[in-house]
Amino acid sequence: MKKTGKQHWLVLGLGLSGSAAVRLLLSEGRRVSVLTDREGGGAHGAVMQQVPDDSEIFFDEASVPWREIDGCVVSPGIPTEHPWLCGVRQRGIPLIPEFELGWMRFGGRTIAVTGSNGKSTFVKWCVETLRETGVDAVVCGNYGVPVCDCVMAQKQPEALVIELSSFQLEAAVHFAPDVAVLLNLLSNHLDRHGDMERYTRIKLKLFEQMNPDAPALLPYSLKAVAERLYPEKRWVTFGVEEGADYLVRKNRVMRGEDMPGEALSGTMYGNRIMQASGAAACAWMDAMKINRSTGLDVLRSMKPLPHRQETVANHRGVRFVNDSKATNLAALCAAVEAFGPRVRLIAGGQAKEKDFKSAKEVLAQNTRKVYLIGRDAEKMAAAWGAAVPCVCCCTLEQAVQTAWRDAAEGDAVLLSPGCTSYDQFKNFEERGRAFAEVVRHLEMEE
User: How many beta carbons lie within 10 A of that of residue 108, not counting itself?
Assistant: First the structure.
């Protein structure tokens, strides 16, 4: 993949990632063809207007147009079985994801983070910690701006902290970060990946091309399978299990005989479900040679990201919390534990998981009532009804209003759906904004 000559590249998809890839390739003098199912508006519309005469954009094509193509960039929203990708592979065209195209143009240090839960918070903390130590770092990838946009900046940063989803890692070929972290692995996106074995292999691709001396951080429970796949890597483990390099005990992270360890209290990782991410944070700081007290101070002062355990109002002694980003049961349980034991939980939507029983104990201990919305509300009520009172509500607005009528001073009305939003909303951000808007109207009506 040389950078010289009038190479012809194909870009699949014209969302944020695809548009960034087009801009980067055009800036390098490439000829670009684009396959997209989008109409010509918004950011991609602006890209279309920049495409020169020797480049092409095809809308809703069933297959890859026959052209001499030197390389192909795929956007994360396009699954591996899509006819476009099948056509690219059949023709032997080199294929990489957008983030890898950008990373190949970057000359600084790269930190990569993946996992089923908590990626965005972790990368935000990484960037703020690096900046606290004087390093010019930028967050990009699945959270932040596309990597291709980062490397086109007039002055490149010293470090990229890249959040990666399984959708992005699926097509990775050459990517080799300097430090990599797999935070956790839970049943997720199986509608696309098929089963946990394939999902696990895709997540572990994060480490595939890393230098054997580079720190590869992952939960202790995944070490055995990771070592079978990539035995030569420098594995650093964390978790609550004996044998982990960074072991959590009584809300403290210990490194071997390092006693008494770093306290997680007062941080967002100071609870049973999230404490393993606190251990990952300590492992990352040591890998980056950062003083742990510096990073933990940043963690304690860091504000949560929007739609992630975000307090949107305190009204007559009742706290309203927007955790719309919680799209699986593990995230739901973490939020319920964090705000328990007087939680009035709004949950439901389009579930990723089929078995809801794993949340029963946490709900029984921490919730007063569950207000269920969306496609899978009745299934969740059937699974949880013996442990906690449940009521099915037609809409998010009805759920908020019902929870408010039931609430007493000291309660927390928590939106932590444990499901995706696609049955009722465009995305989790729209769902979170809708929650905040309903709460605002409650205050206005008083």
Answer: 16
